Amino acid sequence: MIDKKIETIAVREGYKNSSEKEHSPAIFLTSSFVFDNAEQADNTFSKKESGNIYTRFTNPSIDLFQKRLAKLEGAQDCIATSTGMSAIFATIMSLLKTGDHIVSSRSIFGTTTIMFNDIVSKFNIDISFADLSDINSWEALIRNNTKIFFLETPSNPLLEVVDIKKLAKISKKHNIILVVDNVILTPIMQRPLELGADLIIHSATKYIDGQGRCLGGAVAGSNDLIEKIDNFIRTTGPSISPFNAWILAKGLETMPIRVKEQFKNANILAHWLEQQNFIEKVYYLGLKSNLGHEIAKNQQSGFGGIVSFEIKGDKKDAFNLINNTKMISITANFGDTRSTIIHPTTTTHGRLTDKERIDSGIKDNLIRVSVGLENIDDIIADLKF
Ligand SMILES: *Cc1c(COP(=O)(O)O)cnc(C)c1O
């Protein structure tokens, strides 16, 4: 539970300065740590004494980022990773074994789908795909060996949602670990652990850095589960660099104020797009026309910074609109202070099969915009078509 307000936690949590009394957190760019004598080394390695040994295990800069994010998510513990993908992979590989089964929502990050289908499946771990918002479809896919429910809500790029509380009731009844990828909303706008989820996944690359500088990931949850994932990470090595962890800890400081402004801009853009003649359909949870609007209003405290839309016409028209922008960056990243635009079918979701893409509802005329911190008038002007 949170004792201070989130904005305060984001800037204050997790740092104790060194004997130098620096105000800004120091960066501990060191691969290992020294001992006063052989006895202390012996005691630290055998865990009779606590202390840093090697950065693949622990490091003060990494610790700062983990503590801050754990507190923001209302989690007992958090472990950082080199990327969002390694956070997902470490979670799956540390908690499951051959013969286990995962139920995942269909609309997840494209690379996660490929990881499940092409890599995780090689270890004889079966994966079934549910319709994110249809609770019954999750329950229908449960088997005796189902160990994990995996989902993103809202999903990217179509912003479907699921009622986390309702799904958590089902996962608890069947002893299934509920894993929520909380990248799109951040803990500022959605706190799934408080709604009954067991683990949170982050790609810190997106809103946590928020300035397009580095990759990073994290998993947050109970001490029990995080210890297992931590053991996997320190043994197999997808640890985060202390430098990246420092960037991300500083990123958290401005994240509350950034996302509030970005989400406000996104809401204005979505309402503007809905009025335009060249638009077929707008996907944004702040629009009453969106299927997930009511659930989103209840379980989120903001509608997100991503606006997706179908343009009237086909892929050629979508390309024309993207090429017509002068300011917005054409890039796959999102959550940046600079607005970005991308054509999902040919880029972020290009490695999916046609069937996987069609099942996910991603059409050739779909465009995704991640709204940044430019003035909203300039963003709108750049999208006029
Ligand atoms: C980007 C992203 C990931 C993967 O994170 P990386 O840091 O790029 O490895 C996972 N899930 C979601 C929802 C993402 O947007």
Distinct ligands, ions and cofactors found in the model: pyridoxal-5'-phosphate
H/E order of the elements?
HHHEHEHEHEHEHEEHHEHEHEEHEH
The chain-level mean pLDDT equals 96
Percent helix: 25-40%
- In DSSP terms, counting alpha (H) and pi (I) runs of 4 or more, how many helices? 14
What is the terminal separation in angstroms?
A: 47 Å
Q: What profile does the largest beta sheet have? A: 7 strands, mixed
Shape: globular
Quaternary state of this entry equals: single chain
Structural class: alpha/beta
State the low-pLDDT regions, or none.
Answer: none
Q: Going across the major beta sheet, what is the strand order?
A: 1-7-6-5-4-2-3
Strand portion: 15-25%
Task: Tell me how many strands there are.
Answer: 12
Radius of gyration: 21 Å
Walk me through the structure:
This protein is of the alpha/beta class and 385 residues long. It has helices at 6-12, 38-45, 60-73, 84-95, 110-119, 135-140, 164-173, 186-189, 223-236, 242-274, 293-299, 315-324, 354-359, 376-383; strands at residues 77-81, 101-105, 126-130, 146-152, 177-181, 199-203, 217-221, 279-283, 306-311, 329-330, 340-342, 366-370. The strands form two sheets. It has a seven-stranded mixed β-sheet with strand order 1-7-6-5-4-2-3, sandwiched between helices. A five-stranded mixed β-sheet has the order 8-9-12-11-10. The longest helix has 33 residues, at 242-274. The model has no long low-confidence stretch (mean pLDDT 96). Residues 83-85, 109, 112, 152, 156, 181, 183, 203, 205-206, 215, 217 line the site of pyridoxal-5'-phosphate.
